[in-house]
Amino acid sequence: MPRSIFEADHEDFRQTVRKFVQSHVMPNYARYCEQRLIDRELWLAAGELGLLGLHVPEAYGGSEAGDWRFTAVVLEELSSFSSGLSSSFGIHCDIVAPYLCELTTPEQKQRWLPGFASGELISAIAMTEPSGGSDLANLRTSAMRTDDGWILNGSKTFITNGSRADLVVVAARTGVGRPSQCISLFVVERDTPGLTRGQKLDKVGQEESDTAELFFDDAVVPLDNLIGEPGRGFPHMMERLTQERLNCAVSNLAHAQSVFDQTLAYVKSRKAFGSPIGSFQHNRFTMAEMATSLDVTRSFLHDCVMAHVEGELTNVQAAKAKWWSAQVQNEVLDHCVQLFGGYGYMRETPVARAWLDGRVSKIWAGTNEIMKELVGRDLGL
Ligand SMILES: Cc1cc2nc3c(=O)[nH]c(=O)nc-3n(C[C@H](O)[C@H](O)[C@H](O)COP(=O)(O)OP(=O)(O)OC[C@H]3O[C@@H](n4cnc5c(N)ncnc54)[C@H](O)[C@@H]3O)c2cc1C
């Protein structure tokens, strides 16, 4: 299907991202998985090519693209090769970026954005806690104001880029009362006294992206590391979750499409009973159903991307896009594993890896159930 929403500039940029994946990622990918960490050099290379600073104003070293389709291109190209890579980079350049670009003072921008855009400062965002992620309003990490700074206590878990991050946007409770008035956001820097990091968590997939626990034990955060309006952290997060969910949806679809394409080639070449396995009616229908699902999903997603470019994407549209694309992605991945037979169950086969990598899309950034809650509430239910 033609990529009707992308123009010549986006397609030129796509070639840059594709070359980045081929020349910088592919040769080192096995090692990233083994060490469960992406090399810092890869972040610097991405920064050099302008992949990290799409949201960052030019005055602070970014390219200030002002058109979210460039971000969609980055996500599509990274997810087509590895959803873990897309997650690590996506958290930095698309999820954290709006916090650092929109909620900061000029002095804070000057401190953080140039390094953020160049890849010298890797970032993470820490909302989820061991006691729960879906019910964000009930987070327990606290921040108490003193003359020497904010004193943070508590812990966060499942934090993407957590073991490596130089800057972590942390949500903490700064008062009592309604969530919309008593949660604030802080940028916690690498060497903050009282910040410790747990072991990298042992995930079933996405080995290359590091995911860690963070502990705050009387961690002293400078007063001027608070970002946004004090006490308004919860609405600040809610406003930015729309983009985060669209980000997930775009990645989900690109990941599924890439695995589908690999499977199409396989079912044409693999033979059983003297015929290509794709020629059996059951498998032909399975492929036809997947092709249809992917195209229909793309159509809705492209509408969502364009709505976002125009500043009109709603929280509910983004929730629909996220849960639906995750569902389609997981159905496609499962069918593809089946079509690869025994090879589909071997870690060395990309489709097996993709199956393990993709499962989390129904869980993170708001589970499918929570997305359906948002859609259901919008229906007045
Ligand atoms: C690999 C990975 C990376 C992640 N990266 C980050 C990150 O960078 N930063 C960050 O802050 N978080 C991150 N997360 C956390 C993620 O967003 C949470 O795991 C997610 O929001 C779910 O929270 P939970 O795990 O505490 O599940 P819970 O909230 O305990 O939910 C458990 C189950 O109960 C269901 N449930 C809960 N409430 C309802 C309800 N009202 N109705 C119906 N069902 C419900 C959920 O859908 C789920 O199935 C990451 C998670 C993973 C796995």
UniProtKB/TrEMBL annotation:
Pfam families reported for this sequence: Acyl-CoA_dh_1, Acyl-CoA_dh_M, Acyl-CoA_dh_N
Classification via SUPFAM superfamilies: Acyl-CoA dehydrogenase C-terminal domain-like (SSF47203), Acyl-CoA dehydrogenase NM domain-like (SSF56645)
InterPro entries: Acyl-CoA_DH_CS (IPR006089), Acyl-CoA_Oxase/DH_mid-dom (IPR006091), Acyl-CoA_Oxase/DH_mid-dom_sf (IPR046373), AcylCo_DH-like_C (IPR036250), AcylCo_DH/oxidase_C (IPR009075), AcylCoA_DH/ox_N (IPR013786), AcylCoA_DH/ox_N_sf (IPR037069), AcylCoA_DH/oxidase_NM_dom_sf (IPR009100)
Domain Acyl-CoA oxidase/dehydrogenase middle residue range list: 124-218
Coiled-coil residue windows: none
Gene3D superfamilies per UniProt: Acyl-CoA dehydrogenase/oxidase, N-terminal domain (1.10.540.10), Butyryl-CoA Dehydrogenase, subunit A, domain 2 (2.40.110.10), Butyryl-CoA Dehydrogenase, subunit A, domain 3 (1.20.140.10)
Needed co-factor(s): FAD
Keywords attached to this entry: FAD, Flavoprotein, Oxidoreductase
Residue span(s) of domain Acyl-CoA dehydrogenase/oxidase C-terminal: 231-379
Record's keyword annotation contains Magnesium: no
GO MF, one example: flavin adenine dinucleotide binding
Acyl-CoA dehydrogenase/oxidase N-terminal domain: residues covered: 8-120
Keyword Oxidoreductase: yes
Similarity field: Belongs to the acyl-CoA dehydrogenase family.
Protein name: Long-chain-acyl-CoA dehydrogenase
The organism of origin for this protein: Micromonospora pallida
